[in-house]
């Protein structure tokens, strides 16, 4: 998956590893995390496949720039056209088994998770403010429709999760009227 994220970012412009990581963190980083320890081997694999070209720069930092090659673009577009897969996250799996967890630990874990969700909502709201200002200055803001749409999805999704955690902390789900809302 990381390889395709990299290819997608390189569709915009050539970048070095640091720029790729920074772009991931500030865009898809809400739902996709990457470390430098996984990023650089992925870049090497893409180079070995002939999907990107890695070239040294002449600056003092000796940065290597990754550039998307035609085969990389082709592979990225093939991947992009595949059917969407449903995502199942670890937090949901753990919460499923929370009946086995000590109640005090369970409440602490849920409170920490809720706080983390709230922090992410605030972070995305700040990004949304920046993006809406930037869109006003663009000649063709429609060209960024799906990226902005993902930002809106992220906010709605996180707000929904935050409300759901509040709901289960209040233990409202044993009422049969609340099972399907």
Describe the secondary structure blueprint for this structure.
Elements: H1 2-10, E1 15-16, H2 17-26, H3 36-49, E2 52-56, E3 64-68, H4 70-80, H5 90-96, H6 103-136, H7 145-169
Antiparallel strand pairs: 1-3, 2-3
Helix pairs in contact: 2-3, 6-7
Tags for this model:
Arc Repressor Mutant, subunit A, 181 residues, 3-stranded antiparallel beta sheet, 7 helices, 3 strands, mainly alpha, globular
Shape: globular
Question: β content, as a range?
Answer: 5-15%
Tally of helical runs: 7
Radius of gyration: 21 Å
Short description:
The chain has 181 residues and is mainly alpha-helical. It has helices at residues 2-10, 17-26, 36-49, 70-80, 90-96, 103-136, 145-169; strands spanning 15-16, 52-56, 64-68. The chain has two domains: 2-80, Winged helix-like DNA-binding domain superfamily/Winged helix DNA-binding domain (Arc Repressor Mutant, subunit A, Orthogonal Bundle); 90-178.
Give an account of the 3D structure.
- The chain is mostly helical and 181 residues long.
- 61% of the residues lie in helices and 7% in strands.
- It folds into 2 domains: 2-80, Winged helix-like DNA-binding domain superfamily/Winged helix DNA-binding domain (Arc Repressor Mutant, subunit A, Orthogonal Bundle); 90-178.
- Strands 1-3-2 form a 3-stranded antiparallel β-sheet.
- Helix 6 runs antiparallel to helix 7 (145-169).
- The radius of gyration is 21 Å and the shape is globular.
- It starts with a helix and ends in a 12-residue tail after the last helix.
